[in-house]
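Quick start: read one record
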Amino acid sequence: MDAIACAWLIVHPAKILPVVGTNNLERIGKLPDAMRINIDRETWFEIYPAAQGHEVP
């Protein structure tokens, strides 16, 4: 999972806890990067429609 995607999930309003199922040590080693990415509420709502192709309901 990409660090930005994981960081986006961490600050999701539903308090999603990402679970990454992998044995790839390189991917596991990059997970802490998500904790260093600061996504505020405004940015979260900018990312969502960009990813989905439509506005937040």
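The chain has four helices and no strands.
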